[in-house]
Amino acid sequence: MKRLMMFAVLMLTLTAAVPVWAAGTVEEVSFYSDALGRDMPAQIYLPDGYDTSGIDYPVVYFVHGMSHDHLDYAEIIDAAGQMISSGALDPFILVKPEAGCTPFVGAGYPIPVHSGLTNSPLNGDFEDYFVEDLVSWVDATYHTVADREHRFVTGHSWGGYSAVRVGLRHTDVFAKVASHAGPLAYEPFAVIFPAMISTEYPGGPPYDYRPDAGLLSVSMFAAAASFSPNPTHPPFYIDLALDEYGQLTPAWSLMEANSDTRWAAELAVNGWTTELYFDCGTLDDVGADYSNMYFSGVMQALGVPFIERWFEGDHWDHIAERLAIQYTFFMPMPATLELSPRIINGRNWWPLVEATVELPGDLDVDDIDTSTLAITMINGEDLDEPLRALVASEISDVNGNGHNDLTVWFWKPSLLRTVAALGIEDHEPFDVTVEGETVDEWFLAATDSQRAVNLPAAAAMPGWFPWPVGID
After folding, report:
1. Which 3 state secondary structure label does DSSP give 104?
2. Would you tell me which of 19, 176, 367, 390 could form a disulfide with 74, CB atoms 3.0–4.6 Å apart?
3. How many Cα atoms are found within 13 Å in the side-chain-facing hemisphere of 176?
4. Are 440 and 455 in contact (CB under 8 A)?
5. Structure confidence by residue, pLDDT tens digits, 317-359
6. What confidence tier does 16 reach under pLDDT thresholds 50, 70, 90?
7. CA distance 386 to 461
8. How many other CB atoms are found less than 10 A from the CB of residue 428?
C-alpha cells in the first residue's frame, strides 16, 4: 500500500510541475489528413528505448476536452512514463491528436471549439480524420502492433464523449474504450442545461448567446456545429439547441440523437464486442455526473458489460490518477501467477487449487484487493461466470526472489467443471488467467498453465459457493 501511495503522491507532484516526460520522449508532429484537406498536429509519447527495442507497441489515443488542445494534459504523459519506468506497465505509445476547429471565424469568433470527432459540413470530417487518417498514419510511421486488440481510445470531458463515440462506432479499430468525466448521455441535459447556461448570462432572458461567454456556451455552440449545422442561418450557420428564452428547440433532438446511449444501443443490437470503462467525479460541476448516471442506467438496461467508477472530485480533478487506472484497464499490470498443483486430479479429495500472485516492479501484493481476484479466462476465452477466489491465506516470498507473493485458493471442482465444459481433455494443457484490482483500482492480470486428469470425476465433487475472504 505504501508504494502505491508514494506513486500517487509522485503523480500529484508531476501535475503541478513542468513536464518532465519521464522515461521516454515526446514528439510534436503533423501529418496530412485527406478527410480534412490539411495538415493536422499531434503529440506523440514514445517509451524509453523505443528506437532500439526492435519491438512493436500498443497504442493509446487520448482526446482532449473542450477549450483544450493536443499540447495540453502533460500530466497524463508523465503518468505513463512513470508507470512504464517503474515496471507497473509494459511500454506503449500514447497519441494526443488535435480535435479542435474554428468554425465561427466568419462571425468574429476565432476561438476553438471541439469537433466531437464527428463529420460535419461546418467543421469538416473529423471522424474520418481520426479513425482513418490518424490511425493509419500512426501505424505507418511508428512501431505499433497494428490491430484492434492493441489499440485503445480515451479522453476527458468532451474528449471522453468523443472517444466513446468513435470507439462504439468503430469496433473494428478499437478494442477497449474509456472516458474520464465525459458527457456520455445527452438526455439529462434537457432538464439541467437551460438553468446551467443561464448563469453565463446574468442579464437575460432574453439571452444573446455567444460562444465566448463561458464553457457551457462554447459547448452548446460546439454541439450545434457538430450536430445541427445550418448553411442558411448566418452568422454562425448553426441551429442552437436553446432559444433566447432558454427553451429547447428542434435542434435538441439532433443532439440527443448523437448521445453515446444511441451508439451503445446500436452496438448491443448488433453484438457487443467492446470493453468499456468510464469514470466521473461525484462533485462534477458541469453536469457530467448526471450524464454518467443516466448512461450507466442505459447500459444496465441493455445488459452489456461495462465498468463504472466514481471518485470524489469535480470535472477537473485527478486527471493523471484516473488516466493511470485507465492505462491498466487497457493493458492490465503484468503480474505473475504460479498454480499448484501443476496437474489437478478430479479424483483427489483435496478441493482447492493454490495460486500465488506477484505484482510487477516494486509494487506490493498487500495493495491487491483480494475480493476482486477471479479466474476470468481459460485459454484466452472469457468465462461467462468468473471463478472467484475463496480465501487469501498469506503474504510471503514463496519463490524466494525477494518480492512478496499473495497466496489465494480457488475451488477445484468449479475449475474442473469449467475446463470440461470448454472441451479440454485429460492431460491437455490449458492456460488459466487470473484478473483483479489493487485498492487504488489499478487492473492486473496474470496467466499460468495447468493440466487436469480424471475430469469426469469433477462432476461428482461437491458444489460450494463461498464468498471471497481477505487477509486480516
Report:
1. coil
2. 19
3. 19
4. no
5. 899 999 999 999 999 999 999 999 999 998 888 889 999 999 9
6. very low
7. 19
8. 12
In this structure, the strands spanning 333-334 and 307-311 are unpaired
Nearest residue to 193 via CA among 155, 234, 249, 154: 249
Residues in the chain: 472
Share of the chain above pLDDT 90, in %: 84
pTM: 0.91
Cell numbers at 177, concatenated: 474504450
H-run or E-run covering 29: strand 24-33
Dihedral sign of CA atoms 316, 59, 148, 361 in order? negative
Q: Which residue has cell 495538415?
A: 39
Positive or negative CA dihedral for 298, 301, 306, 307? Answer: positive
Bond prior to 235 in cis (omega within 30° of 0): yes
C-alpha grid cell for residue 227?
Answer: 450536430
**Interatomic CA distance for residues 276 and 306, integer angstroms:** 5
Q: Where are the domains of the chain?
A: 2-330, 333-460
CATH number of 333-460: 2.60.40
The string of pLDDT tens digits covering residues 386-400 is 999 987 778 887 888
Count of CA atoms in the C-beta half-sphere (13 A) of 462: 7
Report residue 461 as a C-alpha cell. Answer: 465433487
Q: Going by C-beta distance under 8 Å and a sequence separation of 6 or more, which residues neighbour residue 352?
A: 390, 409, 410, 411, 412
Question: Which conformational region is residue 32 in: left (phi greater than 0), alpha (psi within -120 to 50 degrees), or beta?
Answer: beta
Angle subtended at Cα 395 by Cα 391 and Cα 400, rounded to the nearest 5 degrees: 130
The pLDDT score that the predictor gives to residue 361 is 86
Residues 184, 177: Cα–Cα separation, whole Å: 12
Only one residue has cell 436553446, namely: 242
What are the angstrom distances between the C-alpha of 56 and each of 97, 144, 455? 20, 5, 40
Specify the CATH number of the domain 2-330. Answer: 3.40.50.1820
